[in-house]
Amino acid sequence: MSLPKVNVVIVGAGAGGGIVAKELATAGLSVVLLERGEWPRYDDHNDDELNSQRTPVLGNPFGPDDKRHRRVVVYNNGSTRVVLPSEGGYNNNAGCVGGGAVSYGAMAWRFMPQDFRLRSIYGEVKDSTLADWPISYDDLEPYYEKAEYELGVAGDYTNNPFCGPRKKPFPMPAFPYNKEALLIEKTATRMGLHPFPIPMLRNSVPYNGRPACIHMRSCVGFACPINAKAGSHNTVLPIAMATGHCEVRTGCVASEIVVDDRGRARSVRYFDAKNRGQEQPADLVVVSASATETARLLLNSKSKLFPNGAGNNNDWVGRNLQGHLYVGAAGFLEDEVYEEAGPGATLAICDFNHGIPGLIGGGALCNEFIPLPYLFTNMRPPGEPRWGKAHKDFQRRYYKRLVRLHGPVQEIPNFAARVSVDPTVKDAWGIPVCRLSGTRHPADFQQGDFLSKQAEAILKEMGATRVWRSGPSPTPSLSGGQHQAGTCRMGDDPKTSVTDRHGRIHQIDNLFVADGSLNVSNGGFNPALTIMALAYWVSHHIKAGWKGSQLR
Amino acid sequence: MITPVSRRAAMKWAAAGTFGLAAGIGTTAGLARWIRTEPAPYRFFSEAEARLLIPICEQIIPRDDTPGATDAGVIFYIDRQLSSVFQRHQPTYRLGLDAFRKTCLQVYKSPFEQLEFARQTEALRLIESNKAPKELWGDRSQSAFFNLVLDHTKQGFYGSPRHGGNRDYASYRMMGLAYPNLIGQNRYAAGRPI
Fold it and tell me: Is the Cβ of A218 closer than 8 Å to some Cβ of chain B?
C-alpha cells in the first residue's frame, strides 16, 4: 500500500542527504528521509577499540550489521567471495544517521582548483576515464563556504599557498600543532615545504551551540561524546526536523526507485524497521546513499525505459569506483612525542598534490591520528617480531615515540573499477547486493610510491630512526573504502556520465544524486567537505527549479 | 562432571519441564547439588582445550615485569567471542587445537603445557611457518590457525575490558595510558600545546 505523497524522498541520511533534507525542508518542501541505520548514540560504543570504525573486529559500531548485509568481491584472478560488512573487503563506510561523519577524523578539505581539471592539465591517460568536472572550483566555492559555516570548520590557510581562492576566512581558528607536528613543521619548513594546520569539521571553539573539542585519544573511528565533530546528524538535520515537515525514518532499507513509463521517478520502495514493504510516492527523489549503495539502488531500479537500471542506458552507473590509496612512512623519535590529546592529526603538507614532473596528480601528507594499542600492534618496521617478549618491549618502547606522515593519493578513474549488482547473492530483504570488481589504475602506484618516499625523506631529515615506508602494494587492489566516490559521475555529455552538472540523472528529470558518487575525480584529499558542498550545490539547483508544486 | 555443553542442554530441558529425567538427577538433594555448582568457566572451550590455549596465548604475550595474556584473561575474551560474534571461527579453533596437541606429542613427545618455555616457543614457530608434520594438519593451514590465535590474543590483551580480557586495564598500564579514558581535559592553551 502506498503512503501519502510528499514533495521529496531522500535515500540516505549521511553527509549529503542530511544537507539536502535541510535545504529543501527550510525552503518549504515536505521531505521524507529514509535511513537504513539508526541515530548513533555515544553510549552504545564509547571508547571501545574493538568496536571502532577503524578496527571493527567485533562488528561495525555504526552499521551496517553482519547479520543482514552482504557484498560480493571479485578478485584479480576472477574468483569471488561473499564478504561481511565488518570485513575489510566489504569497503564499508557506515550505516547510521550522519553516516561516515559520525566516526570520521573530520578533515575538512576543499579540493584544489586543479582537481576539477585533471584532463586539461594531464591530458589523456591510457586505460583511464580521466575527465574534467563539468563544474569548476569557482562554481563550488560558495557551497564549500556554506558547508564550512553551517557545519563548522576550524582552519587557517595562511601558510598554504596551494589552496584555491576563498572569499571568507574559516569560521573557527585552526587547532594548534601537537608535539609531533611541531617537530615536523620545523623540518618540513627547513626543507622548503609549506606545512599548515589541517582544516577540521571539529569545533576548536564553541560553535553553533556545540562545545569545543575535548581532545579524546579515541576520536577517529568513534562518535564524539560531546558532538564537537560535525556531521549532518548534529548540525543540519535538527534544523530540518524543526521545520515540522522533514520526517527521518530510520531502519528503512530502500530497494527500488519506481520509474514510470514516461521516465519519471514516482516513488521509492523500501522495507521499514519492521521489515514491512512500503512505497513512498514523491514529486522528486534524491539518492545519497554513498558511492556503492547509490549505484546499487539505481541498478536495482529497472523500468521500461531503463531496463538496466535508472540512468544506466549507457552503462556508466557504478563505473569509475574510486577511493584513496593511503601511503606514507613511519618511524620513531628518541624522545616521547605522544600526547594524551586526540585525535592527533594536526599538520598537512600540500606541496605534492600537483605539479610533480612525470606524475599524474599526487596527494596531501598529514601527520596521523593516534593509533590505539591494538591498532598499533600492526605498525611495525619490516622484520620486527610479531609476538613474544619482543612484541611487548616494542609496544612499551615505541608507542609514545611514533611519528607518522601519511596521505591519500589522487586516484585515476578507470572504467573497469566498478560496482555492479550480483546476479545471485541477496541481502536479508531479498535485494541483490553490491558486487565490487576491478582494480586501481597503475598511475596510482606511481603516485603512491613517490608520495611515500617524500614522507620517508621528511621523517629521516627530522632524525627519526627505523623509518619504514608504507608504500603501495605491488598487487593491484580494488578501490572504494570510506572515501568511496565516482560511481555516478556528473557531466555534460549523457553518453559519458550519469548525471548532469546539477546532479540530476540524465533523462529522469526528477531523480537526483547528492553524494560522493558525483565526483568525477576524488582529489588527493578526504572527500567529506566536497560531498557536503556538492549537496548544497545540488539542493540549490533543485530549489531553483521548484515551482510551488513541482519541478520544472 | 557436567560439561558446559551438557549443562546448557540440561537447562533447555529443564525449561521444557523434563529436567529431572534428562539430567538423570532424580532426587531433591541431587537437584540442590546441581544448582550449587559453580558456573563453568568457559562457554566454548573444553577444560582440556583451555589448558592448551592458555599457554599458547601466554607465549604470544608473556608475563615479565608486567602482566601477560594469562593475567589479563585473554582466554575469556576468546572464549566469549567464539560463542557469539566469532562463531565462524569455532572449527578453526577446535580442529587447530587438536592438530597442535598431536603435533607436540609427536614432535616433542610431550603435551605442550608440560614443555619448557623455550621449547614451547619453538613449537609455535613450527606452526607459524607451516613446518609441523603435514599428516596431522591435512588441508588446514597451520600458519592461518596461528595467525588467528595471534590476532585474537592481541585483541583480548589490548581491547576493552568489557569483552572479557585486558583485566584491570593491564595493557593500558603497561603502555602508560590513562584509563578510564580521560574525558574533558584540554591540554591546549593560548594556541600552543602545553
Answer: yes
pLDDT bin (cut points 50, 70, 90) of residue B28 is: low
CA distances from A58 to A86, A177, B152, B167 (A): 8, 33, 11, 18
With contact defined as beta carbons under 8 Å apart, do B79 and B164 qualify?
yes
In a domain? residue A220: yes
Of B85, B178, B186, the CB nearest to A215: B186
| Nine cell digits for residue A496 | 559519458
Residue A452 lies inside a defined structural domain of this protein: yes
Q: A391, B160: Cβ pair inside 8 Å? A: no
> If you average pLDDT over residues A510-516, what whole number do you get?
98
Q: Please give the Cα distance from A200 to A254 (Å, whole number).
A: 32
Mean pLDDT (chain B, rounded): 83
Which residues of B lie closer than 8 Å to A, measured between beta carbons? 59-62, 64, 66, 81, 85, 121, 150, 153-155, 158-160, 162-163, 171-172, 174-178, 181-188, 191-193
Residue A267 three-state SS: strand
Spatial CB neighbours of A231, under 8 Å, sequence gap ≥ 6: A14, A15, A18, A98, A99, A101, A102, A104, A151, A201
A197 contact residues in B (CB cutoff 8 A): none
Q: Among A199, A202, A206, A233, which residue's Cα sits nearest to residue A215?
A: A202
Of A35-44, A172-181, A495-504, B7-16, least confident by mean pLDDT is B7-16
Residue numbers in B near A340 (CB within 8 A): 177-178, 182, 185, 187
pLDDT at B25: 46
Read off the pLDDT of each residue in A174-188 and give the average, rounded to a whole number. 97
Query: Predicted ipTM?
Result: 0.93
pLDDT at A43: 80
Residue A100 belongs to some domain of the structure: yes
* B79-110 confidence digits (pLDDT tens): 999 999 999 999 999 999 999 999 999 999 99
The C-alpha of B14 sits at a distance from chain A's nearest C-alpha, in angstroms, of 30
In a domain, A268, yes or no: yes
Domain extent at residue A187: 6-545
Considering only CB atoms, B187 lies closest to which of A49, A177, A341, namely A341
CB contact under 8 A, A373 and B61: no
Q: What is the count of structural domains for chain A?
A: 1
Scanning every residue of chain A, which has its alpha carbon at the shortest distance from the alpha carbon of B55? A388
d(C-alpha A423, C-alpha B35), whole Å: 53
Measured CA to CA, the distance from residue A5 to residue A250 in angstroms comes to 18
Place of cell 575538512: A108
Does A161 sit behind a cis peptide bond, omega within 30 degrees of 0 on the bond before it? no
Mean pLDDT of A334-342: 92
**What is the C-alpha separation between A550 and A545, in angstroms, rounded?**
8
Longest alpha-carbon distance in chain B = 76
- CATH number for the domain spanning A237: value is 3.50.50.60
Rounded to 5 degrees, what are φ and ψ at A473? Answer: -70, 140
How many other C-beta atoms lie within 10 A of the C-beta of residue A273?
12
